[in-house]
């Protein structure tokens, strides 16, 4: 049973020499009297999908927000490709190649797919440089089609308003939007929540495509079934600590659930919350 | 939760990503390209009704020419309203700003003897400053725009009273200001400019078609293209020709496009290009669709909102100056129907009150509907009371349709 704790898995990985794409070391964060994260280590490698699971309030979101620059940790280091970096804002995080897809997707329903994908960094043709730029719709549409093909996303048209798409398609558009920026790491917050079966399949398929592209992917999910379909490793958060790491090849959902609820780890910190 | 044997997660065979909708149903067409058809039909019904009830006076070239000039102030203020509406906000101070700024221009011209162009510029800049003040409260301090601009409209009306002093109306005698609106254009300005604009449009569409074909994107079929370009060319040329018809009391003197109408249409065309073809315009629609989405995409929402309110007030000031030119005087009493007519024109034309939806061309159709009702009821010697009631009913109808369309969109998800 205890084989699947953090240390054993870390030793098993062939990554003794391999440098993680994104690594968090000894991260702590408190909100007032609440200790949201205490001494958490986390790492994700290129071409790997990590599932981040845990009960409500276990610290998953705080951890993700630390990576995406929304929260600044009180202690600890963040490393990208072995280099220590400072992430003080979402802009920093984006600049360093970390893209986050939040649960609410933040799409503009009234704009079409192309406009949404390129929002904020549209391709332009300068008519009068710096004063009057024309949108380069042709270029944007061409690249949009390219990205959607790479990710195997199927939508009726890239010129329909996003409001007309299904939940899975919208999730796919939100992910495709991050891909346009050539990120190193993609963080997905509950990507399959509130999706139907075929749509969930579509999104899981998309996650595998991201992995094929050599990206490091972190998926927060409540749904262990989905997690086990696409991830390589599962990191379990519990009461602000990393309660365990499981290689998907030699564990079962039951053991992960046990780690989430703390059934297996009677030594869970008690007084700290 | 048996998971060991992962089912193959292959895509459904054959990636189908198209650049154009497969089926263009009447519903999608009405929501997009042909969204103006219902308004156009309404306009036709109104025209036919008044043509019959006024025994042919309504569609008289003289009356039509008058109509296009009457609606210019409403139309310009409506342009300002559209900018704010697209953002999902509202500006209730536009009419007060329009008149306060035209007051500034009038006073500088009459009392201070300023050069007319400088007086006009000062009026416009006053509008910009007022807009920045509005925008500061709305975008930076996040006070609801409804309250800020409602309070503003009262305040700016007060400002107008101070500017004009004891006089209740101030008549402007300067020829430049007086001649802004009521001049008729023909020759190069009246015939050449519209045709040049048309040629530019046709060229842009053809260029677009060619670059899309080169990028191997889906292009319009030749018949679609011919229909689009032919229809619009025919429309523009017909208008230009119609405006050259002699009209006026003695059927001889007056012909050409009214300068005020020309300026207004030019403003609409300029705003159309900005909204549809530039990043700023795209960002405006984005903020109207989802503020959070726009913010996360790196758009500076606060600055954009400030800019929009500043632009809206400047345009409103311009509308006020055109009104000053047409009526040759500025009054201390704020025109009670200007604001609602302007917002109504935008909404009737299809600009959503809920933000993010609608084209600037809406103001042309909407203003025509409002102007036609007003003109027709005038010809029928109806009282202001009746005109007010009719306008109120039309506005409620337009807003109701907008709300229904929005609900229809939401349920299609």
How is this structure best summarized?
The complex is a heterodimer of chains A (273) and B (413). Chain A has helices at 6-12, 60-68, 90-95, 113-118, 137-150, 167-179, 197-212, 224-230, 253-261; strands at 22-31, 34-44, 49-54, 75-80, 83-85, 98-101, 124-128, 132-135, 185-189, 216-220, 233-238, 241-247.
Ordered list of secondary-structure elements with their pairings:
The complex is a heterodimer of chains A (273) and B (413).
Chain A (H helix, E strand, L loop, with lengths): L5 H7 L9 E10 L2 E11 L4 E6 L5 H9 L6 E6 L2 E3 L4 H6 L2 E4 L11 H6 L5 E5 L3 E4 L1 H14 L16 H13 L5 E5 L7 H16 L3 E5 L3 H7 L2 E6 L2 E7 L5 H9 L12
Parallel strand pairs in A: 3-10, 3-11, 6-9, 9-10
Antiparallel strand pairs in A: 1-2, 1-4, 4-5, 7-8, 11-12
Helix pairs in contact in A: 6-7
Chain B lengths: L25 H6 L5 H17 L7 H10 L1 H15 L7 H17 L5 H25 L4 H20 L4 E3 L3 H4 L5 E2 L1 H28 L7 H22 L13 E2 H19 L1 H11 L1 H6 L4 H27 L1 E3 L4 H13 L13 H18 L4 H28 L2
Antiparallel strand pairs in B: 1-4, 2-3
Helix pairs in contact in B: 2-16, 3-16, 4-11, 4-14, 4-15, 4-16, 5-6, 5-7, 5-14, 6-7, 6-14, 9-10, 11-12, 12-14, 15-16, 15-17, 16-17
Q: Could you please describe the fold and organization of this structure?
A:
The complex is a heterodimer of chains A (273) and B (413). Chain A is an alpha/beta fold and 273 residues long. Helices cover 32% and strands 26% of the residues of chain A. Chain A is built from nine helices and twelve strands. Chain A has helices spanning 6-12, 60-68, 90-95, 113-118, 137-150, 167-179, 197-212, 224-230, 253-261; strands at 22-31, 34-44, 49-54, 75-80, 83-85, 98-101, 124-128, 132-135, 185-189, 216-220, 233-238, 241-247. A six-stranded mixed sheet of chain A has the order 6-9-10-3-11-12, with helices on both faces. A four-stranded antiparallel sheet of chain A has the order 2-1-4-5, with helices on one face. The two termini of chain A are 27 Å apart. The relative contact order of chain A is 0.18. Mean pLDDT of chain A is 84; it is low at 1-15 and 266-273. Chain B is an all-alpha fold. In chain B, strands 1-4 form a two-stranded antiparallel sheet. In chain B, strands 2-3 form a two-stranded antiparallel sheet. The radius of gyration of chain B is 24 Å and the shape is globular. Chain B starts with 25 loop residues before the first helix and ends with a helix. The interface between A and B is large, with 54 and 46 residues.
């Amino acid at each position: 049973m205890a084989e699947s704790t953090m240390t054993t898995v870390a030793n098993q990985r062939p990554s003794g020499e391999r440098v993680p794409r994104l690594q968090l070391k000894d991260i702590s964060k408190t909100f007032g009297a609440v200790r949201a994260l205490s001494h958490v280590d986390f790492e994700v490698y290129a071409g790997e999908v990590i599932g981040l699971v845990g009960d409500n309030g276990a610290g998953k979101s705080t951890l993700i927000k630390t990576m995406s620059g929304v929260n600044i940790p009180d202690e600890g280091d963040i490393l990208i490709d072995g280099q220590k970096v400072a992430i003080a804002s979402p802009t920093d995080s984006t600049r360093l190649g970390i893209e986050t897809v939040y649960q609410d997707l933040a799409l503009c329903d009234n704009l079409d797919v192309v406009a949404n994908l390129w929002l904020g960094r549209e391709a332009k043709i300068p008519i009068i440089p710096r004063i009057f730029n024309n949108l380069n719709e042709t270029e944007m549409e061409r690249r949009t089609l390219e990205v959607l093909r790479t990710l195997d996303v199927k939508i009726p048209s890239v010129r329909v308003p996003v409001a007309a798409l299904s939940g899975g398609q919208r999730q796919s558009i939100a992910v495709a939007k991050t891909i346009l920026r050539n990120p190193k790491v993609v963080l997905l917050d509950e990507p399959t929540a509130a999706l139907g079966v075929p749509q969930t399949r579509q999104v899981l398929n998309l996650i595998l495509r991201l992995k094929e592209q050599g990206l490091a992917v972190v998926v927060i999910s409540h749904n262990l079934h989905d997690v086990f379909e696409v991830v390589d490793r599962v990191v379990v958060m519990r009461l602000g600590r990393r309660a365990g790491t499981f290689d998907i090849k030699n564990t079962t959902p039951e053991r992960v659930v046990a780690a989430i609820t703390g059934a297996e780890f009677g030594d869970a910190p008690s007084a700290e919350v | 939760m048996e998971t060991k044997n992962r089912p193959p997660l292959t895509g459904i065979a054959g990636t189908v990503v198209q650049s154009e909708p497969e089926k263009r149903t009447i519903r999608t067409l009405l929501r997009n390209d042909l969204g103006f058809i219902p308004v156009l039909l309404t306009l036709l019904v109104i025209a036919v009704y008044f043509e019959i009830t006024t025994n042919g006076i309504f569609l008289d070239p003289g009356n039509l020419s008058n109509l296009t000039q009457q609606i210019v102030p409403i139309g310009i203020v409506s342009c300002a309203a559209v900018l704010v509406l697209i953002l999902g906000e509202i500006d209730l101070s536009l009419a007060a700003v329009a008149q306060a700024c035209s007051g500034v221009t009038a006073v500088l011209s009459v009392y201070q003897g300023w050069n007319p162009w400088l007086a006009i510029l000062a009026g416009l800049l006053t509008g910009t400053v007022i807009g920045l003040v509005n925008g500061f409260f709305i975008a930076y301090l996040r006070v609801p725009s409804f309250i800020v601009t409602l309070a503003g409209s009262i305040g700016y009306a007060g400002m107008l009273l101070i500017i004009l002093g004891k006089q209740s109306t101030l008549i402007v005698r300067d020829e430049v200001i007086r001649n802004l609106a009521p001049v008729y254009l023909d020759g190069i300005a009246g015939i050449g400019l519209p045709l040049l604009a048309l040629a530019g449009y046709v060229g842009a569409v053809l260029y677009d078609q060619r670059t899309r074909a080169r990028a191997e994107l889906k292009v319009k079929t030749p018949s679609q293209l011919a229909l689009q370009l032919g229809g619009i060319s025919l429309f523009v040329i017909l208008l230009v020709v119609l405006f050259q018809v002699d009209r006026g009391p003695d059927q001889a003197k007056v012909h050409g496009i009214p300068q005020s109408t020309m300026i207004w249409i030019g403003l609409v065309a300029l705003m159309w290009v900005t909204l549809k073809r530039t990043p700023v315009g795209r960002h405006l629609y984005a903020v109207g669709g989802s503020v959070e989405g726009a913010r996360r995409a790196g758009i500076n929402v606060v600055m954009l909102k400030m800019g929009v309110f500043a632009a809206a007030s400047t345009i409103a000031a311009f509308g006020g100056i055109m009104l000053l030119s047409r009526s040759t005087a500025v009054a201390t009493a704020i025109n009670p129907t200007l604001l609602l007519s302007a917002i109504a024109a935008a909404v009737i034309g299809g600009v959503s009150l809920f933000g993010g939806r609608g084209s600037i061309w809406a103001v042309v159709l909407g203003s025509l509907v409002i102007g036609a009702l007003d003109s027709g009821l005038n010809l029928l010697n109806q009282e202001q009371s009746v005109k007010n009631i009719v306008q109120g009913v039309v506005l409620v109808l337009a807003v109701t349709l907008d709300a229904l369309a929005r609900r229809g969109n939401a349920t299609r998800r």
